[in-house]
Amino acid sequence: MAIQDIYATALRLLGRPVLVVGGGPVAARRAKGLLDAGARVTVVAPLASDALRELAASGLLTWKPRTYLSSDVDGVWFVQTATGVAAVDAQVAADAEAQRIWCVNASDHESSAAWTPAVAVVDDVKIAINAGGDPRRAMALRDAVATALETGDLPLRRRRASTGSVALVGGGPGDSGLITVRGRRLLGQADVVVADRLGPRDLLQELAPDVRVIEVGKTPGHHPVPQLEINRILVEEALAGHRVVRLKGGDPYVLGRGGEEAEFCRQNGVEVEVVPGVTSAISVPAAAGIPVTHRGLAKGFSVVTGHEELSEVPARPDHTVILLMGVAKLRESAAALAASGMPLDTPVGIVENGYMPEQRVTIGTLATIAEQAEATGVANPAVIVIGDVVRVSPFAPEHFKTADYSTLTPNKPRVVTPSPSAH
Ligand SMILES: C[S@@+](CC[C@H](N)C(=O)[O-])C[C@H]1O[C@@H](n2cnc3c(N)ncnc32)[C@H](O)[C@@H]1O
User: Running DSSP on this structure, what letter comes out for residue 298?
Assistant: First the structure.
């Protein structure tokens, strides 16, 4: 049978009686698919697999534990036969054919009246693939199309008007590969994208030409679009029936005002989904080879902004302090930590523009870092990491490195080589 002899259509089986003959794994899979489509399924088989028995026991289908009778096809809309015995399947198919009922015969693909495609569902899109009678090829194609839909590489965006909604999508620190699959997919479905200055901005170039991008990016101390206005835009666009993606840098709930935006949308009757992102607080240090915890060096970390009162943060080199938006007040922050007891030779790393081509790493100590930053013109966006974990960075100067931390020797006492520049 040639592929052009197939008429592709979709059966709407909700509430319609269908018949499955056979009790093995293929019959169980097909029965499950038919149940998912809302059909009223009867299974005829002397023996049934556990999966079929469970479905029957929970009342989802009717199992007739006996051999097939020609009268079983009476009154059904669709038949699947998968008994594993070619002669029985042929009989079922012939009985269905005689009554002009479509039948899939699992044991004789060539003569089967209907074929089951390889199917995947992504959101409200169902794809079904026939591939020249080669089921493995059909499954491989199905998986590739489903992945491309899930990752947003294919246009899943609705063309018909729908109810508006807002998705707060954490875009990660800037590299387009560091957004989540869910976030990428929602971006591919957006009618309107409300974008930050930070985050995976390259992805904006890939949006369809009719997707509207509203730029609301802030820099520390400079908010061209105030937060209240951003909230208002989100609600207004969603209430106009648009699917809005609020594409944010990092994670929406880490020093990103995502909570306020979500709350405002909900208060105004707009459905919101929050998609977590890879926060810059953890990932940007990693871009410079700094783990925020490391066995033998640090067991915990605090993430604060440079505007915060630092006196509450544990001031010990084995508790990593991560400062976001901290460049302008670096001198004050370093002094505050030192005043709380953090040793002056505690290593400090600053990572500017993490994951971007212009990424730059500056490493010093609590005593020296403010001067270094001022001398080299360190600027936002930057993540500042304070603590012994900075020693692990390949960018750390040789004298920072100590052999006394290791993942292989947990709890070994820590001996820190003093930094010559710290005094
Ligand atoms: C308003 S905060 C938002 C943080 C975000 N919600 C997150 O989870 O990463 C912005 C700050 O994040 C930091 N930041 C974000 N992306 C960065 C990057 N690629 N490189 C360096 N710092 C970054 C900087 O400290 C910047 O000032």
Answer: B
Is residue 20 within 8 A of residue 60, CB to CB? The reply is: no
pLDDT at 219: 67
Question: Atom 5 (ligand 1): residue with closest C-alpha?
Answer: 250
Listing DSSP states for 9-53 in one string gives -----TT-EEEEE--SHHHHHHHHHHHHTT-EEEEE-SS--HHHH
pLDDT score at 1? 57
CB-ligand 1 contact for 284 (6 Å cutoff): yes
pLDDT attached to residue 33: 95
Ranges of the chain with pLDDT below 50: 405-423
Residue 383 beta carbon below 6 angstroms from any ligand 1 atom: yes
**Which residues are known to be catalytic?**
196, 218
Mutate to test the pocket of ligand 1, among 246, 355, 383 (most ligand atoms within 8 A of CB): 383
**What fold, for 165-278?**
Cobalt-precorrin-4 Transmethylase; domain 1 (3.40.1010)
Does the beta carbon of 283 lie inside 6 Å of ligand 1? Answer: no
Task: Specify the CATH architecture of the domain 3-116.
Answer: 3-Layer(aba) Sandwich (3.40)
* Predicted structure pTM score: 0.73
Domain 282-422 has CATH 3.40.605.10: no
Q: What is the pLDDT of residue 152?
A: 78
